[in-house]
Amino acid sequence: MKISTVSVSYSRKFNLGNYESLEVGCSLWAQVEDEEDADGVVQFLYYQAKTAVKEAAMPVIKANEFQINKAKSQKKATTDEGIMEDL
User: Fold this and answer.
1) What distance in Å separates the CA atoms of residue 41 and residue 8, rounded to the nearest whole number?
2) Measuring CA to CA, which residue among 12, 20, 16 is closest to residue 56?
3) Please, which residues have CB within 8 angstroms of residue 5's CB and are 6 or more apart in sequence?
4) Which sign, positive or negative, has the C-alpha torsion 38, 39, 41, 45?
5) Which residues does 1 contact at the CB level (< 8 Å), separation at least 6?
6) How far from each other are the two terminal CA atoms of the chain, in whole angstroms?
7) Residue 50, Cα to own-chain centre: how many angstroms?
8) pLDDT, tens digit, for every residue of 46-66?
9) By C-alpha distance, which of 75, 1, 82 is closest to 36?
10) In whole angstroms, what is the distance from residue 27 CA to residue 21 CA?
11) Angle subtended at Cα 53 by Cα 57 and Cα 45, rounded to the nearest 5 degrees
């Protein structure tokens, strides 16, 4: 039985406008006894880290006016493209 340690790091930088940004990161480690399980564990850790970063960043992003306006403009552009396709 060989015990190995696998680790995953995930970070993301969010543009908050006005030359401000928010960088959130997460690193996770796990010990695996079987090397065959390592790929599945790495994939699981990746999704866990990604979810943790998203959950940590969401309150700041939701409160940020720039991100709200950006989302609205993207939604409008998508809607406008849909109208153009219908013509």
Assistant:
1) 10
2) 12
3) 29, 30, 31, 32
4) positive
5) 33
6) 65
7) 5
8) 999 999 999 999 998 888 877
9) 1
10) 20
11) 170
